[in-house]
Amino acid sequence: MSGMLYLIPIALLLGLIGLGAFLWSLRSGQYDDLDGAAERILFDDEEDS
Amino acid sequence: MASLGDTAGAADLAVHARAHDNGEHSLELIVEGLHCGGCVRRIETALAQQPGLSLGRVNLTTRRLALRWQGAAARAPELARAVEQLGFHVVPYDAERLRSGDALAEKELLRALAVAGFAAGNVMLLSVAVWAGHAQDMGPATRGLLHWFSALIALPAIAYAGRPFFRSALAALRAGRTNMDLPIALAVLLAAGVSLWETAEGGPHVYFEAAVGLLFFLLIGRYLDRRARGKARGAAERLLALENRPVTVLRPDGTQARLPAEQIRADMTVLVAAGERIAVDARVRAGESELDNSLISGESLPVPAGPGDPVFAGTLNLAAPLTLEVTAVGGRTLLAEIVRLMELAEQRSAKYVALADRVARLYAPLVHSLALLTFLGWVLFAGVPWQTALLTAVSVLIITCPCALGLAVPAVQVIASGRLLGRGVLLKSATALERLATVDTVVFDKTGTLTEGRPELQGQALDPGGLALAASLAGASRHPLARALLRAAPEVALAEGVRELPGRGLTLPTEAGEIRLGSRRWCGLPEDASADGPELWLTAPDSAPRRFAFVDRPRADAAAVIAALEDSGLSVELLSGDRAAPVARVAGELGITKWRAACSPADKVAHLEALRARGQRVLMVGDGLNDAPALAAALVSLSPSSAIDISQTAADAVFQGRSLGPVLELLGVARRAEHLVRENLWLAFGYNALTIPLAMAGLVTPLIAAIAMSTSSLVVIANALRLGRAARAGGGR
Fold first, then answer.
1. What is the structure's pLDDT at A20?
2. Cβ-contact B634, B606 below 8 angstroms
3. Which of B222, B228, B360, B539 has its CA 20 to 30 A from that of B445?
């Protein structure tokens, strides 16, 4: 049972990291243009070639 | 299609550019005509060639272009032109001027949803351990530790994610009403409070997972609800953006100045370039031109304007510059009058109460009295300590909490609007589907709604030589009839040296003599009052005058749609601002027996009010500004996406494309959705009827509450998903 004492905080910490990552992606505008993002992946980068 | 007006507006884009500390300027533009990734790519590639541009990114969802560049604000028009050359129309978007609070609220909901989701998952994990512990002799110390962990996660999460509900419940209480959020807020707060008490006392049962899970499920419903209607904001924002176009004023000393529309006074003299939209009501002082009055009258053909003629705000000057004397500005223009008429009508019809709210009005007091009854019953008749009785009362609140009820309506609406969006129908109002399901009368406008709204050449049996000659001249003009000629003979080479005289016609000097294309008078022919509909005449030196007649054709499937509407028991009417003859012709062609012609916007509203007084529930379908008040006055309204912005704003739903079929589709989906919503509500009630007695008897442990709540939510969502399947099956036929 003593394993719980550190396993629960670790589990919570991992969950919090995930939550933090989501909130960060929301703040940095990654959900602002979902339609555009789906199309952009099909563009060629002409400057690089 | 970029019109000439864009450059006139573009000159003043610099006003909208915002300065930043590092010497950069930024500007947001609404891009019209943006459809796909290809458009995004073309715009961004063109902008990449502009020097000093640090940001040029198109948002395909909001149809906006964000620009940021080094140097002066005055570069804005140059950048906008780069986009307009590709054929897109841009309008400045001033975020501060528009209320963009909706977008913020959507983000707040998403953040709350994320926090609630995190908390619900983790608390549930801990709770499963506790429930397992009940069966396997978990020690009270371990159970207490897990409870404290749960409290640690749940309490901050509830404080954060519950705010949308607490705010709404508080606002309702202040106004002396109850709403759906009140029992939600009460249940969540009481459950958290009692659980904290139990945890501190070392008791066996806590309801943290129920409180957080409840928030999570309800936030999903709330977020879906908001997302479904978010897309509709665009039309209203575009309208507001169009309002602030500057006006060129001719001062008495002969100098010109560009002033914002709100600084224009009556008796000022203003200049309107060809292609510019007129911002005031005025009288023509000098110049001859043609005006596109479609915004005001709904008619697609240009009207000539010369000295002394009145012109109205919102009309488009097509052919040549005009000097105008201002007669009315701002709130006194005809345009403002129509908008006011529309707002009045809207106020009268805004009394519709959504089904979910009507249910909540009955539901909330019932739930609260049941909980109170449970508490009093246990304390007074069973003699248990008040803490235990309170716990039982709270479990009643949790089990009755309108979780399924909160999902029942949004889940159906989201799936219905998703289906409709795929077919080019955009639902704007949350209650549009409910209102559509009760409709028994459909009133159509003619031009642009039942018809395509653009003239087509009539009778293809003309001599091809004449048509080719006419089309070669017509290529020089932007006049709708000339365009229609060109569409009829697209492969014709355009003639060189054609001159256009505004309001009269086209002329081409040749060696043999002058060739003219234009009105009857322009071609030197006697007036004939019996001529029906718009026409063009062609005179060439070596042949007889030839006539080209045009008609505004009904949409291809209009007759079929109207027959289908009448078959399903709906009464169909036609209300038009046009003259009686063309209205009668269209009505006859489509088999509409009830029609009225020459209706002013006020006449249309009056007719709709009369229908309402007779107890009919009307769906209005229209597109022109003259329809906007009627759209607002009807129980529910629909407009094609080719309609002007004001009509799209007034309408509850907007449909795309050249076919009228979406009207049928919309009514069909609305009926199925209404059916499912009622089914869902009955499911939610059935579940309550089953569990409330258990809860009142004190038999509901946290485990049962959690299972009952999740299953009822899932059942309701699964039932809503049937709509999607039904629509798909229906579409396959």
1. 94
2. no
3. B228
pLDDT digits (tens, 9 = 90+) for B658-672: 788 888 888 988 888
ipTM: 0.81
Residue among B117, B154, B215, B105 nearest A18 (CA): B117
Nearest-CA neighbor of B349 among B649, B640, B670, B629?
Answer: B629
Lowest mean pLDDT segment, chosen from B42-51, B97-106, B553-562, B586-595: B97-106
Instruction: Return the DSSP state at B277.
Output: B
B107 touching A, CB under 8 A? yes
Asked whether B246 and B259 are in contact (CB, 8 A), the reply is yes
By the 8 A CB rule, do B295 and B623 touch? no
Q: Are B658 and B251 in contact (CB under 8 A)?
A: no
CB < 8 Å to B153, chain A: 12
Which residue from A31, A40, A46 is facing B37, i.e. has the nearest CB?
A: A40
Q: Do B126 and A22 touch (CB under 8 A)?
A: no
* pLDDT at site B153: 93
**Per-residue 3-state assignment (H helix, E strand, C coil) for B651-706:** CCEEECCCCCHHHHHHHHHHHHHHHHHHHHHHHHHHHHHHHHHHHHCCCCCHHHHH
For the question of residue B445 being annotated catalytic, the response is yes
Residues 6+ apart with CB under 8 A from A16: B118
d(CA B549, CA B467): 12
* Subunit contact A32:B125, Cβ cutoff 8 A: no
Of B40, B114, B126, which is closest to A19 when you measure between CB atoms? B114
**Three-state secondary structure of B415-467:** HHHHHHHHCCEEECCCCHHHHHCCCCEEEECHHHHHEEEEEEECCCCCCHHHH
Residue B153 contacts A where some CB pair is shorter than 8 Å: yes
Q: Output the six-digit token pair for B153.
A: 């996660």
- Using a CB-CB cut-off of 8 Å, the residues of chain A touching B36 are 39
The residue to which tokens 């909901």 are assigned: B109
Name every chain B residue with its beta carbon within 8 A of the beta carbon of A31: 110
Residues B563, B572: contact at Cβ < 8 Å?
no
Q: Which helix (H) or strand (E) holds B95?
A: none
Vertex B455: Cα angle to B544 and B528 (nearest 5): 45
